[in-house]
């Protein structure tokens, strides 16, 4: 039985799954936590990966490994391959001013959408490079290469110390602002616009490209950005839109066409198969539920029960969940707000319902934008930690206006990486087909007034 490994190095933790390459059967797995914060030294990811690999029983018997990771994180290396400074993560908003400057310098959002399919916001790598150049010139002067979290971990697994051996894939490269999914090429002119000079960047591999080898000879796949890996891990079919409720909220679908949205709401990323991955991203997702549970001093099961005990629309109580600023819409300095607080709505149940509905309404706005850009949404595939909430599962179809399919809980990003690793070993034009467990399906009549009162509160 040939085995493959998939790694998910996310914002909060590192997960490793070992699966049968032919059937996808889970053989073993491991996990380790990451430090909190929006600025983390990559060495912490490497240490967590080693712990997760050890818990998973090691990689000595696997034929291939692929790494999926949180997107956009700025990992800067000097000429010796040493990390210059802690990585700025996707959810670090200090580069919001740099994003605005870059938009103006290229001539507006439409110019960026034409160039690379996305419009600068603080999340993207190039804005962080601009911030570094402006605010830490001594560190900026040391930088010889820039890569992303999954690129760096793949490189470390290969044992190489040469910057020329850095490798990445289309999905992660497409979230940097200096690589175009449409033309499949780096825009070095935009990298120089942002940072002020050229840098070494990873080679971009195709879906089954080989990024290197483990010491035991096992192949290293090209890896992926986390959302693209999740799409591969869920086995989403045409007409499926994936809504992932994790640290961030994402709404995306595999597509034959790259979107061109000058507003920046829909980003034109790439997927893991050679196609495109139009995506809408919110900063605030599962941690909205965490915050509500903490505020009410309940666990997540009780938060769900409370939410389902309140009426739809929470009698007009609305939570606009911009607890960490927001990316979509682009409001990096925003805070969360509560509207419609009255004596009637001053109950734990109403607040719990408003928290769930507010989070889901923000994602429903993303779904509207995605379908307006041309994506087909016949049903919603709901994944991520937030999908474990019964209240989220039952309320979601009323806000999305579509049937909601919830696969069994799993590590779909790591599973997607494992499936890519199996594809690398098998070759061919399409990834291997793995058997899937039967999902749960939730349906409900739409309740337009919830979206309407949220829109009024959001402004």
Automatic annotation (TrEMBL):
Active-site residue numbers: 226 (proton acceptor)
Domain named Carbohydrate kinase FGGY C-terminal: residues: 243-423
Domain of life assignment: Bacteria
Residue sites binding substrate per the record: 71-72
Site positions (Important for activity): 8
Molecular functions (GO terms): ATP binding; D-xylulokinase activity
Database matches in InterPro entries: ATPase_NBD, Carb_kinase_FGGY, Carb_kinase_FGGY_CS, FGGY_C, FGGY_Carb_Kinase, FGGY_N, Xylulokinase
One GO biological process term: xylulose catabolic process
Ranges where the Carbohydrate kinase FGGY N-terminal domain occurs: 4-218
Top class in the EC scheme: transferase
Catalytic activity, reaction form: D-xylulose + ATP = D-xylulose 5-phosphate + ADP + H(+)
HAMAP family per record: XylB (MF_02220)
Function: Catalyzes the phosphorylation of D-xylulose to D-xylulose 5-phosphate.
Entry similarity comment: Belongs to the FGGY kinase family.
Official protein name in the record: Xylulose kinase
């Amino acid at each position: 039985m040939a085995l493959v490994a998939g790694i998910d190095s996310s914002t909060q933790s590192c997960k490793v799954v070992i699966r049968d390459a032919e059937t996808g059967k889970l053989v073993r797995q491991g996990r380790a936590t990451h430090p909190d914060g929006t600025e983390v030294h990559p060495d912490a990811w490497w240490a967590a990966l080693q712990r997760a690999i050890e818990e998973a029983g090691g990689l000595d018997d696997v034929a291939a490994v692929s790494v999926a990771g949180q997107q956009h994180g700025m990992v800067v290396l000097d000429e010796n391959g040493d990390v210059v400074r802690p990585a700025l993560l996707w959810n670090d908003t200090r580069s919001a001013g740099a994003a605005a400057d870059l938009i103006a310098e290229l001539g507006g959002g439409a110019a960026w959408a034409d160039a690379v399919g996305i419009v600068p916001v603080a999340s993207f790598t190039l804005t962080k490079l601009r911030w570094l150049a402006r605010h830490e010139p001594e560190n900026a002067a040391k930088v010889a290469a820039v890569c992303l979290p999954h690129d760096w971990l793949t490189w470390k697994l290969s044992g190489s110390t040469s910057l020329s051996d850095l490798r990445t894939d289309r999905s992660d490269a497409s979230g940097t602002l200096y690589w175009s999914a449409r033309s499949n090429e780096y825009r070095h002119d935009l990298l120089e616009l942002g940072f002020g000079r050229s840098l070494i960047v990873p080679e971009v591999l195709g879906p089954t490209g080989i990024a290197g080898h483990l010491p035991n000879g096992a192949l290293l796949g090209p890896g992926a950005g986390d959302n693209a890996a999740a799409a591969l891990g869920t086995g989403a079919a045409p007409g499926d839109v994936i809504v992932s409720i994790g640290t961030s909220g994402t709404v995306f679908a595999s597509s034959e066409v790259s979107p061109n949205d000058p507003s920046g709401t829909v980003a034109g990323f790439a997927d893991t198969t050679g196609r495109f991955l139009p995506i809408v991203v919110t900063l605030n997702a599962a941690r909205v539920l965490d915050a509500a549970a903490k505020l009410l001093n309940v666990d997540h099961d009780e938060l769900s029960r409370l939410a389902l005990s309140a009426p739809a629309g929470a009698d007009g109580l609305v939570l606009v969940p911009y607890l960490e600023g927001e990316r979509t819409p682009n409001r990096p300095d925003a805070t969360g707000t509560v509207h419609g607080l009255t004596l009637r709505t001053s109950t734990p149940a109403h607040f719990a319902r408003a928290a769930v509905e507010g989070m889901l309404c923000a994602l429903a706005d993303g779904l509207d934008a995605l379908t307006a850009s041309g994506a087909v949404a016949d049903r919603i595939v709901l994944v991520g930690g937030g999908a474990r909430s019964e209240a989220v599962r039952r309320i979601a179809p009323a806000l999305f206006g579509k049937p909601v399919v919830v696969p069994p809980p799993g590590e779909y990003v790591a599973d997607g990486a494992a499936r890519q690793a199996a594809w690398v070993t098998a070759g061919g034009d399409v990834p291997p087909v793995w058997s899937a467990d039967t999902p749960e399906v939730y349906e409900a009549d739409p309740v337009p007034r919830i979206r309407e009162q949220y829109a009024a509160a959001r402004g």
